[in-house]
Amino acid sequence: MLDVSVSRDDVGNLSFKVYRKPTHTDQYLGFASNHPLQHKLGVIRTLCDRANSIVTKEEERTQELDKVRRSLAICGYEDWSWVTTRKKREPKPQSKKQLSQPKGSVSIPYIPGLSESIQRLLRSNGVITHIKPTNTIRSVLVNPKDKTDKLDKCGVVYHIPCGDCTSSYIGESARSLRT
Q1: Hey, which bits of 11-137 come out as E strands?
Q2: Distance of alpha carbon 39 from alpha carbon 148, whole angstroms
Q3: Tens-place pLDDT, residues 78-135
Q4: How far apart are CA 35 and CA 77, in angstroms?
Q5: Whole-angstrom Cα distance, residue 5 to residue 54?
Q6: Same domain for 81 and 14?
Q7: 32 and 78: one domain?
Q8: Cα–Cα distance between 48 and 61 in angstroms, integer?
């Protein structure tokens, strides 16, 4: 049971709380970071859902939600982000437009300001849009293959001009350029 601390009271009843390792730093996705807003609001939703689903005593649940709110305030989360997240969790009456099937889904790269506009436009036309960050630490640091030297590449297109006239020969080699 990940993230759960279980304790037994004097009567023998079990109670559950959120567990954090002693080395936990309360560092979450910074609100000023270059990530889509929905990812940042997802941090709030995830931590609140964890508190509401794990913690059994109301007093401890309130303490956990206060701790989450303080931790996220340090990471730059403002009060309006909590209000927005709370509004999205309340069920809304569905209109006829919402009851229709989506026309499809698309995943677009995150470009601040532009991606959100495109997402609103597509959503109004019934297309589900997912935004994904393009510049990740993994994409910068991880290269699964070593770069091939240009002279060792095969399938090279080459051009050889004639030394005596203006003619030239263009070809493609199945062998390496070095050969």
Answers
A1: 14-18, 104-109, 127-132
A2: 37
A3: 999 988 887 766 666 655 555 567 788 888 888 888 888 898 899 888 888 888 887 7
A4: 13
A5: 9
A6: yes
A7: yes
A8: 10
Name the β-bridge partners of 168. Answer: 161
> Hey, what amino acid is at 158?
Y
- Residue 114 phi/psi, 5-degree rounding, is -80, -45
Same domain for 152 and 135, yes or no, is no
Q: Of the candidates 160, 116, 23, which has an alpha carbon nearest to the alpha carbon of residue 173?
A: 160
Q: Identify whether residues 68 and 116 lie together within a single domain.
A: no
Structure-block tokens of residue 169: 């020969």
Q: Do the domain assignments include residue 56?
A: yes
Q: What is the pLDDT of residues 9-34, one digit of tens each?
A: 889 899 999 999 999 999 999 999 88
Name the one residue in this structure whose structure tokens are 């009843």.
13
Domain identity same for 84 and 109: no
Tokens of 84: 């927005």
In a domain, 97, yes or no: no
Same domain, 15 and 43: yes
Q: The domain containing residue 115 runs over which residues?
A: 102-139
Residue type at position 108: I
